[in-house]
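WP5 quarterly update. Target: Membrane protein insertase YidC. Source organism: Rhodanobacter glycinis. Length: 581 aa.
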Amino acid sequence: MNQTRTFLLFALLAVAYFLFMAWEKDYGPHPPAPAVASSASAAAPASSDSVSVPTASGSAAVPGATSPAPGAAPAIANAPAKVAPSQQVTISTDVLRLTVDTRGGSIVRSELLDYPVTPRTKKNPDPAPIRLLDETPSHYFAAQDGLVSADGPAPDHRALFQAAQTSYTLAPGKDVLVVDLTWTDPSGLKVVKRYTLHRGSYVVDLDQQIDNGSAKAWNGNAYRQLQRVEPPAPHYSNFLARISDQSHYGFFGAAWYSPEHKFNKLAFDKFAKEPLHASATGGWVAMMQQYFVGAWIPKAGETDTFSTAVVNVGNTSRYLIRSVGPQISVAPGKQGDTSARLYVGPKLPDVLGATAPGFQLTIDYGMLKIFAVPLHWVLAKLDKLTGNWGVSIILLVLLINLATYKLTNAQYASAAKMRKLKPRMDALKERYGDDKQKMQQATMELYKKEKINPVAGCLPMLITIPIFYGLYYVLRDSVELRQAPFFGWIHDLSAADPYFVLPIIYAATMLIQQLLMPAATGMDPTQAKMMKFMPVIFAVIFLFFPAGLCLYYVVNGLCRLGQQWWVTKRYDAMDTKAKTA
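Structure tokens (predicted):
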């Protein structure tokens, strides 16, 4: 396999892969929104705004839902009813600002204070923080929880809670902030919903204490759910801006994990086709997007029922993933409790791994995680030393080139020898003309005589290709590289080079490498023309890639060019010395 064909194969694979992703995103099949709410367990009647889920035995009519048949499970409503107005409670720590609606005690907004929407600049030193949970209709995303009972009152995520104040802030010097919301029923049942936040943490602890002051036993279930809409497509000023936006290619949808079922994803267009209904112990349910994730994590060892649903609210479809806990029984005059954790924050590998088993899998490297995970680990270690992700990428290039030095040296040594053989190769071509079989046979004999390995040029490329795709996913999905500056004009290594300097430098590097490479004997004229345009083709391809990936290939290209020049110069000197001896 010669160097030319390898370059052509690499370009074809890269172009085909990214064109396919863009086509799939824009023109792939998208099922129509269902006319009614649906779930894995049962479809609700057309007039219902609820979804049936397995809970305690018996029958009940939950407010806002149609009554189930005798013996059926109670239903959890998904759309708020028209009731008395509620209050919004703001809870702030050093990294999170949450907004809780007393209607249901649900978290309807979360602002990640360390992650601005746009990079900080002199003109805009304090940009707005990213909202993960959001109550606005076009970007609706809420973390809801509640209790349901088949035979008694229970506060679901539409019940009206009471809060002592409308604003809570983590005080300086304190590490924990506790916020209580209270619901009471005329029967004597009282539920205290307690949110506990910790300094520097994106984990919110939820505890629900059930005080049964009624005259009969209370039986019910706790549930937690994430409900969101598919956000509208972003507006791009031009085609280049659209293609350069890497979030366009990332996974957006639901995910869940358990030791039994492992990690699974469900895109929004698959909710109606592949509904989830499964029992899981020690797992979690989540909604994923590029860089950030929201997830409910039940108590360790608890067996929950995971399910998904599509719910229509007006003309909008909301996608829901839910976890329903085991039955809770509280005798009259006794207390019961249930707990879970909510994560609303960035996809930081160490943080996710320490939060729950399998949670780090929400960093979606896909099939290439075997390459992406170690690459990210090395980059993270280098960043701790340098404090700059761009410098870390450069050091990664140097480490890879050091590890593959012998392979690339053999490649360039083979190329240098082939340059010296060009007159003899031209003579063979003139002698055998169009007899390709004899030409190939004579060429292989000449290679064998001169100890040239034509396959030597393929091995470095076989290493480069998986690194290319693995690093692409690292740069696209690693939140640490989001808005990470390098130097000069590059303010975000995860975005395209705004002035296309790096792609042009890489194209120039490729052009010089071509001049140092021997022309492949017997190359098809079409291939020869393609080879001449390769620098231009790669420059165009790299216009759309993250600047960090372009930086990797520019530095890698310069390293290879320097090594190629040195090897070529050495063989030229050896040849000159042999002729004068």
